[in-house]
TrEMBL record:
This is Cytochrome P450. SUPFAM superfamilies: Cytochrome P450. Its cofactor is heme. The keyword Metal-binding applies. It comes from Trematosphaeria pertusa. The chain crosses the membrane at residues 18-38. GO terms for molecular function: heme binding; iron ion binding; monooxygenase activity; oxidoreductase activity, acting on paired donors, with incorporation or reduction of molecular oxygen. InterPro entries: Cyt_P450, Cyt_P450_E_grp-I, Cyt_P450_sf, Cytochrome_P450_monoxygenase.
Length: 509
C-alpha cells in the first residue's frame, strides 16, 4: 500500500516537474527570441550593417574574443559591410579615419566619450586605474604620471634603457654552448620580451626582472604572458552587468588564480619601490614628487597604476619589435635598405644611443609601417557615447552605444591603404593622400587618453633595431616559417609565436 502511494505520488510529481521545466524553457526561448528580434528590427542601431547573430546578441562577440579571433572577424566584417559595422546589439566598430577624433579626441562643445568597462576595478573598494572608465580618476592619475614621460624624463631614463640593451646585445653575441660562432639561431620574440620587461621592471619597481641576465622569464613575466588572456576574458564578461561578477567564475580557475597571484606580487613590488627614498631616473621619482607636492596618490592608487604601467610599457613594445623584425626578415629589400641607412649613419655600435637614433627617416618609416600592419593594440578599447547621444562620422549615435576604432581591421582595408596587407615603409616617406589615408593611422590613439609612453616606445624601438641591424646580418632561420602576422590569435594583445632568426656578425661590427 505504502509502495503504491509512493508510486502514485511520483507519477503525479513527475509530469508537474516536467511541465514546470517545459514552461521555463519555453519562456526562456521566447524571451531570447523577443530580445534578438527587438535588437534586429526595433533597436535604434537596427540600420547599421553587420552579421545577423552579432546584431541580435553579444555572445558571438564573446565567443570570438575567447577564441582569439576577434581581429580576423572584424577585418572580414569591414571588408564585407564597410567602414561602420554593428558587432553587438549595442556596439559599432569603425574603420574610418574620421572616427578617431569623434570617438577618442577632445571635441569642443561635446561631452567626452568615456572608456567602457573593460578595465573596471576587480574588487570592491579598489580605485580606478589610469586605464579605467572613471574620467576623474583618469585625469588625476594622468597628471600625476605626466612628468615621468616628459622629454626630460626620457633623457634621464635613456642610460637605464641603453644599459639593458647592452646586456641584450651581449647575450645575443655570447658564445653558444661554450663556443664562438659564425652563425647562431635565436628566438627574438623571447629576447625582445626579456628586454622590454626588464626595462619596465626597472623603471617601475627599481629592480630588474633579470630575464636578460639569466636568459629565463622571471615568474612575474611568465604570469604576465597569460595576463592578456585573463584581461580579455574579464573584459568580455564585464559586458554583462549586473551578472558580470558571477560570470567571472566561468573564467578558468587557473587563469583567475594567476591573476590574483600576479596582483599580489606586483603590489608587493610597488610598495617596496615606494618605500625607497631615492632620486633614480624612473617612472616613480617624478610621480612621487608630484604626489608629495601637488595631489597625493593613495597607496591603493599607486598599486593599481603601477601594474598597468609596467605591463602597458613592456608587452606593447615587445610586440611591435617582434612584428617589425618579422616583417624585415620576410621582406629582404626593406631589410637591406634599412641596414644600409643604419650602417652609413654610425661608425661603431657604441655610438648608437637613444639621442642619436632620432633622425633616421627610413628607420621611422619601417617602425610606422610595422605599427600600421601589425598594431600592438589590435582591438580598440571601446568608448561609450554620452547620454543624449552624439555624432560619429557625421551620423547621430544614441547615448550608451559602445564605439571603437579597430586598428588591425581598419589598417588592412584597401579603402584606407594601397596594398593594405603588404609591408611598404615607403608609404610613410612620401605619403600619397590619394592612396593612403594617414588620418586613420593612430597606433598610440589620440586625445586625453592617448598613449602616455609614446616617445619612450619610439625611443626603445629605434635604438634596439638600430643596434641589432648594425651588429648582425639577420635572416629567417627557416624559409618555411613565413606567414602573415595577423594569422596569430589575439587576447587583447597578440598571442605571439616564436621568431626564429639566424644571426651572423656583420662586417662593420
Ligand atoms: C609600441 C608601443 C606602444 C603602443 C602601440 C601603445 C599604444 C597605446 C594605445 C593605443 C593606448 C590607448 C588605449 C585606449 O584607447 O584606451 C595606450 C595607452 C597607454 N599606454 Fe601605450 N603603447 C605603447 C607603449 C607604451 C609604453 C612604453 C608605455 C610606458 C609605460 C605605455 C603606457 C601607456 C599608458 C599608461 C596608457 C594609458 C594612458 C591614459 O589612459 O591616459 N605605452 N597605449
Amino acid at each position: 500500500m505504502a509502495a503504491e502511494m509512493t508510486i502514485s505520488v511520483d507519477q503525479e510529481a513527475l509530469p508537474k516537474g516536467a511541465a514546470l521545466v517545459a514552461t521555463f524553457l519555453a519562456s526562456l526561448f521566447i524571451t531570447i527570441f523577443l530580445y534578438g528580434s527587438y535588437n534586429t528590427f526595433l533597436h535604434p542601431l537596427r540600420r547599421y550593417p553587420g552579421p545577423v547573430a552579432w546584431r541580435a546578441f553579444r555572445f558571438p562577440y564573446v565567443i570570438a574574443t575567447h577564441r582569439g579571433e576577434m581581429h580576423q572577424r572584424l577585418k572580414q566584417f569591414h571588408e564585407k559591410y564597410g567602414p561602420v559595422v554593428r558587432i553587438a546589439p549595442n556596439e559599432l566598430s569603425y574603420a574610418d579615419g574620421a572616427a578617431w577624433k569623434d570617438i577618442y579626441g577632445n571635441r569642443p562643445g561635446h561631452l567626452p566619450f568615456t572608456r567602457s568597462t573593460w578595465f573596471k576595478p576587480m574588487s570592491p573598494g579598489e580605485p580606478h586605474s589610469i586605464m579605467g572608465p572613471d574620467e576623474e580618476a583618469h585625469a588625476k592619475t594622468r597628471r600625476a604620471f605626466a612628468n615621468a614621460f616628459s622629454e626630460k624624463s626620457l633623457r634621464d631614463q635613456s642610460p637605464v634603457i641603453e644599459g639593458y640593451l647592452d646586456i641584450f646585445m651581449k647575450q645575443l653575441k655570447a658564445p653558444a654552448a661554450g663556443r664562438q660562432w659564425t652563425e647562431k639561431t635565436v628566438d627574438l620574440n623571447v629576447w625582445f620580451n626579456f628586454l622590454t620587461f626588464d626595462i619596465s621592471g626597472d623603471l617601475s619597481f627599481a629592480e630588474s626582472f633579470d630575464c636578460l641576465k639569466t636568459g629565463k622569464a622571471h615568474p612575474w613575466v611568465e604570469i604576465a604572458q597569460d595576463f592578456g588572456k585573463g584581461l580579455s576574458l574579464v573584459a568580455s564578461v564585464n559586458q554583462y552587468p549586473p551578472i558580470d561578477k558571477l560570470l567571472r567564475y566561468v573564467i578558468p580557475k587557473n587563469i583567475r588564480q594567476r591573476q590574483t597571484d600576479h596582483r599580489a606580487m606586483s603590489y608587493a613590488m610597488a610598495r617596496k619601490r615606494l618605500a625607497l627614498e631615492t632620486d633614480r631616473p624612473d617612472y616613480i621619482t617624478p610621480t612621487k614628487k608630484y604626489s608629495k607636492e601637488k595631489v597625493a596618490l593613495s597607496i591603493e592608487e599607486w598599486q593599481v597604476n603601477m601594474v598597468v604601467i609596467v605591463f602597458a610599457g613592456s608587452e606593447t613594445t615587445a610586440s611591435a619589435l617582434t612584428a617589425i623584425t618579422r616583417e624585415l626578415v620576410q621582406n629582404r629589400g626593406v631589410l637591406n635598405r634599412l641596414t644600409r641607412e643604419i650602417r652609413n649613419a654610425f661608425e661603431k655600435e657604441d655610438d648608437i644611443k637613444i639621442a642619436s637614433t632620432g633622425s633616421l627617416p627610413y628607420l621611422d618609416a619601417v617602425i610606422n609601417e610595422g605599427l600600421r600592419l601589425d598594431p600592438p593594440i589590435v582591438i580598440g578599447v571601446p568608448r561609450v557615447v554620452p547620454e543624449g547621444g552624439d555624432s560619429v562620422c557625421g551620423q547621430q549615435i544614441p547615448g550608451g552605444t559602445y564605439v571603437s576604432f579597430n586598428q588591425f581591421s581598419a589598417n588592412r582595408q584597401s579603402r584606407n591603404f594601397r596594398h593594405p596587407n603588404s609591408f611598404i615603409p615607403e608609404r610613410f616617406l612620401n605619403p600619397d593622400p590619394n592612396t593612403d589615408d594617414m588620418s586613420s593611422f593612430q597606433p598610440f590613439s589620440i586625445g586625453r587618453q592617448s598613449c602616455i609612453g609614446m616617445k619612450l616606445a619610439y625611443a626603445e624601438m629605434r635604438v634596439t633595431l638600430a643596434r641589432l641591424l648594425f651588429a648582425f646580418d639577420i635572416s629567417l632561420a627557416s624559409e618555411k616559417d613565413r606567414w602573415d602576422w595577423g594569422e596569430q590569435k589575439t587576447y587583447i594583445f597578440w598571442d605571439k609565436r616564436p621568431l626564429r632568426v639566424t644571426l651572423r656578425r656583420s662586417r662593420v661590427s
